[in-house]
Amino acid sequence: MRPSRRSHDEMRAVSFERGVLRHAEGSCLVKFGETHVLVAATLEERLPPWLKGQGRGWVTAEYGMLPRATHDRTRREAAAGKQSGRTQEIQRLIGRSLRAIVDLEKLGERQITVDCDVIQADGGTRTASITGAWVALHDCLSWMKSRGMISTIPLRDHVAAVSCGIVDGEARLDLDYVEDSDAQTDVNFVMTGTGGFVEVQGTAEKIPFTEAEFSTMLGLARKGVGKLVDLQKLAVA
Questions:
Q1: Per-residue pLDDT tens for 124-183?
Q2: Residues 6+ positions from 125 with CB-CB distance below 8 Å
Q3: Exoribonuclease phosphorolytic domain location, by residue (predicted)?
Q4: CA-closest candidate to residue 30, choices 95, 116, 98
Q5: CATH of the domain at 227
Q6: Predicted model pTM
Q7: Which residues are annotated as a binding site?
Q8: Cβ neighbours of residue 234 under 8 Å, at least 6 residues apart?
Q9: Binding site for phosphate: what residues are annotated?
Q10: CA distances, 118 to each of 68, 100, 125 (Å)
């Protein structure tokens, strides 16, 4: 039995609360169990200099963790004067995941910045961020469409992410912190609603994993992402 008393193929409770920020064009509080992430999508009428004049927009992301999101206080990165390598890697992953399903030409020469701030962490902060970011981005694009800035919502698909791992020799879906810290293997799957892959991040922490184990985790991930996409559809319906 898992510490959370879930079955091996069971997700944590997942929820999306939309419109939680007054000023953001799109926002969402996403919860994967005890992991809570506040996501805000901001429209900016500007582009990075290297994109100007190309007739297309850009979607980027920033990620951060509040000091008491974790069991012990973590020093603010602003106080340290630089972002950690982990933070940079995660926010780049979020940006790539969102750009994979946006028609940037239909966005016009505009930028949408998606901020993902972890207010409580219990494993899977990057997967929760990506999944909630799609909802906030959708609402930002809907805001633009309602004001005649774009004629259609330029989303080609859904995108969501989930973790899987081998813990005590068993393949499990959606690891929380206790499981993640003790996993023999940890894999993050970023997938679209139609089943395409955006990114797969897999690491053997103790012993290498086999092709059969990877196939089992992939099957769990497809099930988990399918559920997440269904929840996204319900959230924005």
A1: 999 999 999 999 999 999 999 999 999 999 999 999 999 999 999 999 999 999 999 999
A2: 35, 37, 65, 90, 118
A3: 10-140, 159-224
A4: 116
A5: 3.30.230.70
A6: 0.96
A7: 86, 124-126
A8: none
A9: 86, 124-126
A10: 10, 23, 7
- Whether 52 has a pLDDT exceeding 90, the answer reads no
Structure tokens at 26: 């799109």
Q: How confident is the model at residue 53 (pLDDT cuts 50, 70, 90)?
A: confident
Residue 185 lies inside a defined structural domain of this protein: yes
pLDDT digits (tens, 9 = 90+) for 182-208: 999 999 999 999 999 999 999 998 889
Q: Is residue 9 part of a domain?
A: no
**Domain membership flag for residue 4:** no
The stretch 19-44 carries a mean pLDDT of 98
Residue 101 lies in a domain: yes
Instruction: State the total domains in the chain.
Output: 1
CA 209 to CA 170: how far, in whole Å?
11
pLDDT at residue 132, rounded to an integer? 98
Does 49 have pLDDT greater than 90? no
How deeply is 227 buried, as exposed, middle or buried, from its count of CB atoms within 10 A (0-12, 13-18, 19+)? middle
As a whole number, mean pLDDT of residues 209-229 equals 98
**Could you list the residue range(s) of the whole structural domain that residue 28 is in?**
14-236
